[in-house]
């Protein structure tokens, strides 16, 4: 049985609308109108400001899939239009169907038409959208059908049992682009920001006006033109304010804006997803430079514009943005002004720290939860968590997501961390659908077990019981394939024992960076005697032992006598050191160290079993009274002997970097494939956003030959892929990695990318123990 202790877990909770990906039908030629129809329907749902619409043909594109995975949606829905929507896009279709039915009675014909226009239209493009949504659910492991998903389709009619209408939450009027106007890519580029609504508009909007509105970043000017009757305080449908929400980020935001070029569905999908992740994103589906382009390059000179495209090559993208720059109508006086943009591949855009759209008055609310702590570091809720109904929401009418985050126990949003990984033991996943998201745990307010405040005692028994898996369990769950196994390596076991003696990973890392580590190296058999006084250091068959005189003589002017004495006493109390005597035997020539716990006036020889008396002729060195010596714990001795401080130096540095300060850390482990060891990793870190694996070395190379280096680089990257790790960190105590090692990493990354295999982000950490530097490998 696993050992357990109990504590309180400090949490913060946020209430937010569900985050949706809506897959729209796509018949290629009219994909803009179908996407607009789906966006119009999404615009009526609370949470539309933090959700996305994706044409079905763009779902499988790697650059788009990468962004959709980072969104970590609560629901993937297939948009199912009504006959009314289909007839609006294809006028006369409903009338022709009525003629085919040969209904001559006018009253019956009118009744048939009213019923027909409300019925779902199920054409081939709708079926393809459903299949694309299913594939996306499977890839993201979210709201899959086998998990009794709350909803799978977004119909044109409201279903308040699943999703909350925006109108029932909003406290101020809101407006969007009239749906009938969104028939071109330029109009959709603007509507993407403000949303679409069902309203009439008798005027016209020119192409230039659409383009200016889509690029200038101001939503109000054209919107007021479309709705001159709108009252003061009116909000855009897709603004966060309309849904009483705010976007939050737990990181410093980059000033880089993004412009996506290209007029294909995948270009729109990329811009739509990046808008939710990074915020400032513009979609430019037109080719010709014009007056609207001046807004792309406005702002502070320090702001950079990242320009990308899915459908265009890097060369074509560069050519188009260069043309816009050269023909911009507003220029600086200096003729050699630096260009304020960089052309990048869509896969190179940083997706770290995505925005989280939450209810304005209900986020980062403090609470605590009694939990049991298991031996592997996993936490399980020992009591049910009471569900709260935030101000402004009604449990009878509204549906929302509850997100819980623990400051000292982050959860990376891995697709493998589904219901079974984050619910308490013996809790039925069919009663509590929860998953890892946003660095913590999220669940739907009206799953079977949700209980509002003030519920009856019987009702409150159903509230969810949660679990926060430790880093070791995360790795085990992440390696979910039948032929993959994760287990501690010998080095990992030594580190785990030492951590258990010291009490925490932080204490173990502090040992590696502090003055104590060089002292512990004095216990190694091959350590130089240094300036230890005679008789203060003894090299026995079983171990090397030191007396206090040897400890005091250890050369470290910055480590005072009092602090050194206190550290020895602490290590002795923890079991890192054992205090005892060097004793001989009167029956055989053995000389051995005997811990204090084994010493009495009578003691038995370990070699021959002979009985001995604790007298002057038995102890060493020969002095009037015995001298205390210290023996190092075998696991700690092996850790020191095998340079176990190098991985500790790496994780100690990393856990002091922004975004990793609360990371969960795992010591060395092996990944087995088909039962055989495949690769050994020196550490793993789990943050609120990613899982990282690391390799730490005291040299600057992965091998002595190009073949060896390439093979080792491939094994490390494949190890990341096997457990779903987003990144690989290579750490060394040297000032830099060798050029041949960097070349091997670049070649292996390129080869994996060409073969369609996952390529982890590679970071190089150098100068451990002296002046550490962290840099990302550019491939």
How does this structure look, described?
α14 packs across α19. Helices cover 30% and strands 22% of the residues. β23 and β24 form a beta hairpin. The chain is of the alpha/beta class and 779 residues long. The strands form ten sheets. It has a seven-stranded antiparallel beta sheet with strand order 19-20-18-1-16-17-21, with no helix packed on it. Strands 23, 24, 25, 26, 29 and 30 form a six-stranded antiparallel beta sheet that branches. It has a six-stranded mixed beta sheet with strand order 31-34-35-36-37-38.
* Span between termini: 47 Å
Strand percent estimate: 15-25%
Biggest sheet, strands in spatial order? 19-20-18-1-16-17-21
| Helix-and-strand structural type | alpha/beta
Q: Tell me, briefly, the overall form.
A: elongated
Biggest sheet descriptor: 7 strands, antiparallel
Number of helices: 22
Rounded mean pLDDT is 87
Radius of gyration: 33 Å
**Contiguous runs where pLDDT drops below 50 for at least 5 residues:** none
User: How many strands in all?
Assistant: 38
Give the proportion of residues in helices: 25-40%
